[in-house]
Amino acid sequence: MIAWLEDLNRQILAGYNTRILGGFDEPFYRAPVDDAPAEIRFTRDYERSALHELAHWCVAGSDRRLQDDYGYWYAPDGRDAARQQLFFRVEIRPQAIEKHFCTALGVAFEVSIDNLDNPDVHGLADFRRKVDARFDAYAVTGLPARAAAIAGHLDIWRNKYD
Q1: pLDDT by residue (tens digit) across 99-128?
Q2: Considering only CA atoms, which of 157, 103, 162 is closest in space to residue 135?
Q3: 90-104: pLDDT as tens digits
């Protein structure tokens, strides 16, 4: 288990009736059902997967957080060029937030194209630039509230236990 998860679940996510859990073959957001909290599920015990899925949760609005996988489409590996470009457009904000989370924890960050069957996708350099620009903009204007709370928590956790 990733050490900071228990603290994050207790100190931040519980206030949103949400928890983050690892050990899954694929990431998935399960919306809250009845009295059960929402679940941010990440791949196996991969720290980067946890940070990425947290970033998506931070971007999703309140209506989206009431839908499984936030109500979004997902196209698996092997996306064609048009689908990959759409993927890039919707991933700029969450990956910029993920980069802030990685920075707070001292974890290396690299953009994810999430298309392993076609790693030589057109537009990757432009996507990296846009993620970096959004990262820089958040550094100036501040992260959205939930993302700021998580990044602050991760930074404190790292300084306390690192």
Answers
A1: 999 999 999 999 988 755 555 567 888 999
A2: 103
A3: 999 999 999 999 999
Cα–Cα distance list, 117 to 28, 56, 92, 114 (Å):
20, 23, 21, 9
Q: Which amino acid appears at position 160 of this protein?
A: K
Count of all residues that appear for the chain in the document: 162
Instruction: Name residue 28's amino acid.
Output: F
Taking the CA atoms of 134, 147, 20 and 29 in sequence, report the sign of the dihedral they define: negative
Residue ranges covered by each domain of the chain? 3-71, 81-161
Q: Which amino acid is at 10?
A: R
**Two tokens, residue 44:** 């196996």
Give the list of residues 6+ apart from residue 146 with CB closer than 8 angstroms, or none: 16, 57, 58
pTM of the model: 0.92
Torsion of CA 27, 33, 37, 43, to 10 degrees: -10
